[in-house]
Amino acid sequence: MPPIPAFHRRLRRGTALVSIALSAWACLPPPAAAQAAPYRLRIVGGLEGSNQYTRLEEPFWTRELSRLSGGRFTADIVPFDRAGVPGAEMLRLLQLGVVPFGTMLMSSLAVQYPEYTAPDLAGLNPDIATFRSTLAAFRPYLERALREQHGVEPLAVYIYPAQVVFCKKPLGGLADLQGRHTRVSSSTQADFVSALGGVPVVTGYAQIVPSLSSGSTECAVTGTMSGNTLGLPSITSYMHTLPLTWGLAVFGANQAAWQSLPAALRELLRRELPRLEAAVWDQSERETADGTACNQGAAACSGGRKGRMAVVSTSPQDERRRREILESTVLPRWVQRCGARCAQVWNQTIGPVRGLLAAPAKPR
Question: Residues 6 or more apart from 121 whose CB is under 8 A from it?
Fold first, then answer.
């Protein structure tokens, strides 16, 4: 879809912001004494403070790359939310080469490129095995579109842990969200909550605790372990285990920057980044389970603080409702926002795998 003038203005502001924020880090040449030093990459990674970044991305680029290459190649990395990179403009900045190597959160592209959010619609992937098969069906289209339409070479696809519902008041099932003001982080989560009769409240991650504490919201959708880190077990009492969404990110490179790399470095990254991707998926699966255990106060808790929350498992009624909402509300609203082309892409990729075809968008 063609960019609109307002987007161009935001892009110019975002590009200026990135140039300033990264000037001391990514835009200056290495010292003269280091000109003959190992080839060094500049990477914009994922979310600061997430285990994906601290335990996997950062160590890979700052330590493993050098070890794997015998010291020939090294890298600096900064999380995108500390680098001053506007998430919604990351794809465009990669296309322009302003950011040569960077990580895009797919949910942040929902306005400009809603088609890329298809694999993580609310209610689509109730477990990680389903998410794997959903992404496998969509990935060839996604990678081809990034290359051909944006000049971006996709190198890895990451996920974040399951996003679930925390509530202050008793929660026996999804139906109990009716009438409750619930924090959400995306339009597709908002569609799901509103279909349950709830009142979605779109707020940032940093506002979850203040909003719950003030009574502006009664429930919140966030990650099982990130909720634990925020201290939600001390201000909420119930957690439902159904993943509304997960969180999808793509690590990619500007194609010109990618082609300019030494052939040996491209070969190494083609070999090692799939291993990093697999480690991220495994970490997200473990963290989803560990967050649940910690919030509940189970002995299996290892990475967080033990709470005393009531953990509500997905019932057969919840599973039926999930499927109904996905079919009757979430998918049609996504198609309406995205357009007829998106319905076609869905029906050629994810639809057959999930047994759910999309009707064309209605004329506006």
Answer: 188, 245, 326, 330, 331, 334
